[in-house]
Amino acid sequence: MDPLHWLDERADTRRAAGLRRELRPRAAETPAIDLASNDYLGLVRHPEVLAGAIAAVHRWGTGATGSRLVTGTTEDHARLEQELAEFVGAEAGLVFSSGYTANLGVVTALAGRGALVVSDAGSHASLVDACRLSRARVAIAAHRDPAAVDRLLAARTEERALVLTDSVFSADGDLAPLVELHRVARANGAVLVVDEAHGLGVRGRGGRGLVHELGLSGAPDLVVTATLSKSFAAQGGAVLASERVRAHLVDAARTFIFDTGLAPAAVGAARAALAVLRREPELAGRVRERAAALARIAGVGEPDSAVVPVILGDAAAAFDAAQACRGLGVEVGCFRPPTVAEGTARLRLTARADLTDAELTVIAGVLGEVLDLARERVAS
Ligand SMILES: Cc1ncc(COP(=O)(O)O)c(C=O)c1O
């Protein structure tokens, strides 16, 4: 008997529900307008960012050569950590090989058996997996609901507790009530962990993130996690926190210890992207303004971030609409269950700071046509 026969059944079920996923290798040169990537600041081909990556490869080679604790920490890793921490107003930084491993590392190292982790219902999958891996008791709080978090924290028997949330939620682009969450966490002796993957480069003065915007930077009981793969046009992740937390992660975060250090090219690219953003702080405002333009075109409410969700509801309708956009030269994201809740399948448009007015005109034509049809289909 074929021990994997059930894979075909699962595939059939997903196909019938319009939930099959496929990989579409990109060509290097494509005329398509990109509204699907997370290259929010449009820096992924910026000459200085390319030069930063190339210089790092020439200096250090193509790989980090080992785990961070052995040979995988170059002087440039240390510089990037300092620069990122300084940028967001944290005491210290620690770079991981991805935002995913940064989240796993923080939560597993700061929680563990005998702790409580309270996570927003909309937290990113990497935080969800971090909860599972932590062996802590996990409680899910309603989305953006500090009162629910307060109740869960107050009723706990565990001494230690962590509260987890995205700052900008990846599927809806909405914002976490960070001031209230921090107040509630502090009142209950808990640590707040904020994933700024979609906040850095977009929110806050010069793109310093939502934590900075709300005056929470540097709080000793707040830990920021970040990815270098979105606004910073590279790859990798970071934790930005106190020296004390950083030192603990170096000792105890398994995804830091048992993982090869971030490749030098990514370090060099991220440093260069950060330098561009520091020199051109207006990029953050520009991506927000472009997002607002996309929202007007799509007929949805004003966004709080670079993410513009266009909810269609039905998974097959969303999938077909995304395909139609692609056929007309506009690449859009398509989020379906289980990434988003049942009945909320959507197109996910992401703005870039370098979207031109001419591109917006093309987008208006394409989205106008595709969304009219999709909305009619869903309504009938
Ligand atoms: C909110 C959020 N956190 C973490 C991650 C993971 O970051 P990375 O891609 O660097 O692993 C992502 C997406 O990539 C994300 O959207």
From TrEMBL:
Keywords: Acyltransferase, Biotin biosynthesis, Pyridoxal phosphate, Transferase
Matches recorded under InterPro entries: Aminotrans_II_pyridoxalP_BS, Aminotransferase_I/II_large, AON_synthase_class-II, PyrdxlP-dep_Trfase, PyrdxlP-dep_Trfase_major, PyrdxlP-dep_Trfase_small
Record PROSITE patterns: AA_TRANSFER_CLASS_2
Matches recorded under Pfam families: Aminotran_1_2
GO MF annotation: an example: pyridoxal phosphate binding
Gene3D superfamilies given in the database record: Aspartate Aminotransferase, domain 1 (3.90.1150.10), Type I PLP-dependent aspartate aminotransferase-like (Major domain) (3.40.640.10)
EC number: 2.3.1.47
Catalytic activity field: 6-carboxyhexanoyl-[ACP] + L-alanine + H(+) = (8S)-8-amino-7-oxononanoate + holo-[ACP] + CO2
Cofactor: pyridoxal 5'-phosphate
Annotated metabolic or biological route of this protein: Cofactor biosynthesis; biotin biosynthesis
Record has Lipid metabolism as a keyword: no
UniProt record similarity statement: Belongs to the class-II pyridoxal-phosphate-dependent aminotransferase family. BioF subfamily.
Subunit structure as annotated in this protein's UniProt entry: Homodimer.
Protein name, as recorded: 8-amino-7-oxononanoate synthase
Origin species: Nocardia panacis
Phylogenetic placement of the source organism: Bacteria, Bacillati, Actinomycetota, Actinomycetes, Mycobacteriales
